[in-house]
Design a protein that fits this description.
Thiol Ester Dehydrase, Chain A, alpha+beta, about 130 residues, 3 helices
Length: about 130
């Protein structure tokens, strides 16, 4: 199967920092600032959306690796933005550079990998663990 992906493709996702995505709320710390797990999820969301926009409904992608640094705090009320760039394609394996920004500065960066999977096969494999 050929996928219409090319290196250099980019995507962004935006979120507001609310009480629900603070370190206190997600259990990753004791301060009311944007949580590292929330930043990671926003980065993955941007990458997933980039891939999904070129796949038909039979296919999707799943995250397999995420190495990030969270380099600056973001308080409640600010917006954050994750930006991803597709940097490598090896068959169904995809590599991305990922960055996150608040309204003032870059707050995180790293690398992310995803694999394109057939939805039905992947869910069948996951469901087989229930037996």
């Amino acid at each position: 199967m050929e996928f219409k992906l090319v290196t250099g493709m980019t995507a962004e996702c935006i979120a507001a920092v609310t009480q629900k995505n603070t370190a206190v709320a997600v259990g990753s710390g004791s301060l009311d600032v944007y949580a590292t797990p929330a930043m990671a999820a926003l980065m993955e969301q941007a990458a997933a959306e980039l891939v999904d926009r070129v796949l038909d409904n039979e296919w999707t992608s799943v995250g397999t690796s995420l190495q990030i640094e969270h380099t600056a705090p973001t308080p409640l009320g600010m917006q954050v933005r994750a930006k991803v760039c597709l940097t490598g394609i090896e068959g169904r394996r995809l590599s991305f550079s990922v960055e996150a920004f608040d309204e003032q500065e870059q707050i995180g960066r790293g690398q992310h990998q995803r694999v394109i999977v057939r939805r039905s096969s992947f869910m069948e494999k996951a469901g087989s663990k229930m037996i």
